[in-house]
Specification:
Oligomer: single chain
Structural class: alpha+beta
Number of strands: 11
Radius of gyration: 26 Å
Low-confidence stretches: 150-157
Distance between the termini: 31 Å
Order of helices and strands: HHHHEEEEEEHEEEEEH
Strand content: 15-25%
């Protein structure tokens, strides 16, 4: 439970998708639950209770959105573990159910059940209507991320720098999970972000510099090859540090000169400076 939560669970598109799916799931579930509850006051149509229903759902949705925005905004300031994520989700359920209890006491006036009993029942159904879609969403995005992730494997019918597949190859998949490029690690120079695509610069069997473009996130490449010689040094670049000839420090920062004179120097931004310098420090320590 203290293991770091995968970064893809904190991405903006994932958080938006989770909130949207959870809201739709909760609306359907609560409407199915109404006939079996003595304290349910949800109503659709032209009625006063509909206003309470719409207001409750709007406030609850707003709270969850603000909670997820806070989760997204603070992801860089502390490590989100599985345990913290679970506790965060539980806290969302508790707050929504407490709000439901207060609204129920106001709507029903003097219900036969005590506030504690109403809260306990709402906690059960709130867990079902919120936690279950959270779990389903997490599983769905985990599958999506697996399809997007760059994997190391031997495959045929893909663009390659050589005619035969060998060990220690880097293979790149597009966003649909289709393998597009297979390159020897020693032939890869760098990967460049280009909007929703990446440009992969590598040398072919004849030693000529080639570029291949595929639809993939640069962040996926960075995460998939964490701990290897592929290091992110810039918002737009992931560089194969084994192909770096010179690391230069200039007045405006560090620059990487790669082992090909036709490739212009690649700058190292402040955000990734420690990562690049740490790579060299680690190698010297070894």
């Amino acid at each position: 439970m203290n293991k770091k939560l995968p970064d893809y669970l904190l991405e903006k598109y994932q958080l938006v998708g989770t909130v949207t799916f959870t809201f739709l799931f909760a609306v359907v579930f609560l409407n199915l639950y109404i006939p079996f509850s003595d304290t349910a006051w949800f109503k659709l149509g032209n009625s006063v209770l509909f206003l309470f229903t719409a207001g409750f759902m709007a406030v609850s949705l707003l709270f969850v959105i603000l909670s997820r925005v806070l989760m997204y905004r603070t992801r860089k300031y502390f490590t989100m573990t599985y345990l913290k994520y679970v506790l965060w989700c539980i806290a969302e359920v508790v707050v929504v159910c407490a709000f439901y209890t207060l609204v129920t006491m106001d709507v029903l006036g003097n219900p036969s059940d005590s506030p504690l009993e109403i809260f306990g029942r709402s906690l059960l159904y709130g867990t079902i209507s919120i936690i279950i879609p959270y779990i389903i969403s997490a599983m769905y995005f985990a599958i999506i991320d697996k399809n997007k992730t760059i994997r190391l494997m031997n495959c045929n019918n893909v663009v390659s720098d050589t005619e035969t597949h060998t060990d220690n190859r880097i293979t790149l998949f597009d966003n649909s999970g289709a393998l597009k490029l297979s390159v020897k690690a020693s032939n890869l120079f760098y990967v460049e972000s280009d909007d929703n695509y990446v440009k992969v610069w590598y040398s072919d069997a004849a030693g000529e510099l080639k570029m291949y473009m595929l639809r993939c996130r640069l962040k996926t490449i960075e995460e998939s090859f964490s701990g290897t010689s592929l290091i992110r040094c810039h918002r737009k670049y992931v560089v194969n540090m084994d192909k770096v000839k010179v690391l230069r420090k200039e007045s405006d920062g560090y620059y990487l000169d790669l082992d090909d004179e036709s490739i212009p120097p690649i700058s190292v931004t402040k955000t990734y400076e420690n990562k690049v310098l740490g790579y060299y420090s680690g190698n010297r320590a070894d």
